[in-house]
Each structure stands twice: as structure tokens, then as C-alpha cells.
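Re: [ENG-882] Designed sequences occasionally contain unexpected residues at chain ends

Forwarding the minimal case from QA. C-alpha cells:
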């Protein structure tokens, strides 16, 4: 979730809409820069507005609270993950590749700015409203990944009790890696933590080769009939 991702909010449409989107883009960019510089807790609405070059009241035209800006950051992260998944579909990639791309892109986005990812987690945990809104955004990706997982189960490409559980395992891998890397000062890079978790999950979901049928062993108790002597009656 680097500041470069905010260009996805570039203005388009009518002049008034252009101005609205441009102001929102500047506010989001300012928030990202401040969180990177001083951390989430020390970043204030006043600082965000000042860096964006707008009045404090203008901030509240676009966002109800400082925490609400987190939802926009989550939208950027999830949008990137969905775009990565769609790119795999476009090139004819497998279901497993789609699930891998979506999950790893979440990690790549989070890893691009750990301080910002920490802010997203803090705001989502501290504010029920922000947490619910963030969950709703992640929910759209969850639905798309669930469709992929269901297709994989039906085609035999992956195994699992159900599609929702498959996706939940991958999301748990991402969230666990993100929480570890944003809370531990000595953690490895997020992608290095997440990669083996995703690999292990997908390997566990891979269809197992069918076992060869065992050849029945000849009973040791079976006695070989004595051969008759030549000429014996």
C-alpha cells in the first residue's frame, strides 16, 4: 500500500467530480506520508489537512474520522489483489495460481509500507465501524476467491471440506503473517513469512495420488502339494 497506489483515485468525469477526487487523492496521499513519517497514533487530522493543502473542515467532507481513511487504503490493497487474480484468469492460469496471486498480492501490498499496514490493523481493531467497513471490502475479494476454490474442488484441482474453508485458510495465512510482521521488530520481510505459509496450505489442499492396489501376499501356511514321482501310481 505505497503512496503510488493512490493514483488509482485519479480524477475523471465532470469538473466538480474531478476536484472532489483530486482532493480525496491528496488527503489519502498526505495520510500515507504522515503515517510513514511519524506513525499512525501521532498522525492527526490537522496534519493530514495541512499537508494536503486544504482546510481541516475539508477533510471531514470526505472522511468522517481519521480512522475512516483506512477503508480507502484497504480498498486499494484489495483492488490490487483482485487485479492480480484477474490477470491470472486473463492469461489462462489455473485455479491454484489465482488463489496464490490474490493472497500473495495482499502480502506484497502490506509489505510495501509496514507502518501503514500497522495503522490499518490498529484502526480496524480499535474502531468497530472501521473494522466492519474493512471486512466488507475484504468480503468482495473473499467471494471471488471462494468462486475460484469451488471451481477447483469441483474440477479436482484442489481438495477441501468446502470452498469457504479453503479461502479462510489462505486468509488466515495472510493475516497471521501481517500481524507478526507489523508487531515484531525482528520479523523477516512479510513476503518471506507469507510465501511458505501459502505454499504449505496449497500443498495440503492438492489432490493426493491414488495408492496402488496391494497384491495379496501368498499365505505362508499354504503348503505346496508334494510332486508325484515319475511312474508312481
Amino acid at each position: 500500500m505505497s503512496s503510488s497506489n493512490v493514483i488509482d483515485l485519479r480524477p475523471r468525469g465532470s469538473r466538480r467530480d474531478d476536484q472532489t477526487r483530486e482532493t480525496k487523492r491528496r488527503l489519502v496521499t498526505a495520510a500515507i506520508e504522515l503515517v510513514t513519517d511519524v506513525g499512525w497514533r501521532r498522525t492527526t487530522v490537522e496534519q493530514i489537512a495541512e499537508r494536503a493543502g486544504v482546510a481541516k473542515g475539508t477533510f471531514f467532507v470526505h472522511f468522517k474520522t481519521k480512522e475512516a481513511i483506512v477503508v480507502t487504503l484497504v480498498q486499494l490493497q484489495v483492488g490490487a489483489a483482485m487485479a492480480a487474480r484477474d490477470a491470472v484468469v486473463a492469461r489462462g492460469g489455473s485455479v491454484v495460481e489465482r488463489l496464490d496471486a490474490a493472497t500473495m498480492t495482499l502480502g506484497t501490498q502490506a509489505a510495501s509500507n509496514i507502518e501503514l499496514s500497522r495503522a490499518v490493523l490498529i484502526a480496524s481493531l480499535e474502531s468497530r465501524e472501521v473494522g466492519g467497513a474493512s471486512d466488507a471490502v475484504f468480503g468482495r475479494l473473499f467471494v471471488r476467491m471462494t468462486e475460484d476454490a469451488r471451481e477447483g474442488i469441483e474440477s479436482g484441482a484442489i481438495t477441501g471440506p468446502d470452498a469457504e474453508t479453503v479461502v479462510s485458510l489462505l486468509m488466515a495465512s495472510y493475516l497471521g503473517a501481517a500481524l507478526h510482521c507489523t508487531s515484531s521488530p525482528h520479523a523477516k520481510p512479510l513476503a518471506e513469512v507469507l510465501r511458505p505459509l501459502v505454499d504449505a496450505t496449497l500443498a495440503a489442499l492438492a489432490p493426493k495420488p491414488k495408492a496402488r492396489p496391494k497384491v495379496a501376499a501368498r499365505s505362508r501356511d499354504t503348503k505346496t502339494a508334494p510332486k508325484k514321482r515319475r511312474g508312481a501310481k
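QA comment: On inspection the terminal residues look reasonable. Residues 128-155 form the longest helix (28 residues). Proposing we downgrade this to a documentation issue.
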